[in-house]
Specification:
Layout lengths: L1 E5 L4 H12 L3 E6 L12 E5 L5 H8 L4 E4 L11 H15 L4 E5 L13 H13 L1 H16 L3 E6 L2 E3 L8 E4 L8 E3 H11 L8 E6 L1
Parallel strand pairs: 1-2, 1-4, 2-3, 4-5, 5-6, 6-10, 7-9
Antiparallel strand pairs: 8-10
Helix pairs in contact: 1-6, 2-3, 3-5
Length: 210
């Protein structure tokens, strides 16, 4: 497939690029600073672009089979980034009639796991309070997806870890894995690539965790 990756220099973004290249896909990595992208490969095209201007992004998404985005806030001070930048990506995609989009959201944006223990619900409430602005941003991002014409999927991981790819994780469409508290960035990337051509995840939030 021909894929475009936004947020390609982030932890999940670089993993998406690396794993996609390893699987034989052609990848366009859209970045603000190419120096920060450490992944290389014969099927990789690196594009430096203004992420505030949909017109500048149109060539990077034109003719692609899917767009995957790791764009988002790195902390509370960046709240608002996810919705704002995703809005620009959506405008570029809709202008080029590209439909498939997968983005990274977060577990607290979606529903609790069915049958979740009280301690997990309490932990979720505390985390949501501490990062209120970040999760409000992600909820607005998901609302933008819902208003768009794209075939979107919002992937909702819990606390992220830097660990090697395992390929062993759980996903729940429209919900969240019971007892799931952690997941590695590499496995989130793996899940996103696996969902790219999965019609069952279209216009859905998908919880992913160990």
């Amino acid at each position: 497939m021909k894929l475009t990756v936004f947020g390609a220099t982030g932890g999940i973004g670089q993993e998406i690029v690396r794993q996609a290249l390893d699987s034989g896909h052609r990848v366009t990595a859209v970045v603000r600073d190419p120096v920060r992208l450490t992944v290389t490969g014969a099927g990789l095209e690196v594009v430096r672009a203004d992420l505030t201007d949909p017109r500048s992004l149109r060539p990077a998404v034109a003719g692609r089979d899917a767009v995957l985005s790791g764009l988002g806030a790195r902390g509370r001070k960046d709240a608002g980034v996810a919705a704002r930048l995703t809005r620009v990506v959506l405008a570029a995609m809709e202008a080029e009639s590209v439909r498939r989009l997968l983005v990274v959201s977060a577990a607290p944006v979606g529903p609790d796991a069915e049958g979740a223990a009280l301690v997990d619900r309490a932990m979720r409430t505390v985390i949501s309070g501490l990062l209120k602005g970040v999760y409000a941003d992600l909820r607005e991002m998901e609302a933008e997806l819902g208003r768009s014409a794209t075939d979107w999927t919002a992937v909702r991981p819990p606390r992220l870890q830097d660990k090697p790819l395992t390929g062993s994780y759980r996903t729940v469409v429209g919900g969240f894995p019971l007892g799931g508290r952690f997941v590695g960035r590499a496995d989130v990337a793996h899940a996103m690539l696996a969902m790219t051509d999965d019609p069952g995840t279209v216009k859905q939030g998908v919880g992913v965790a160990y």
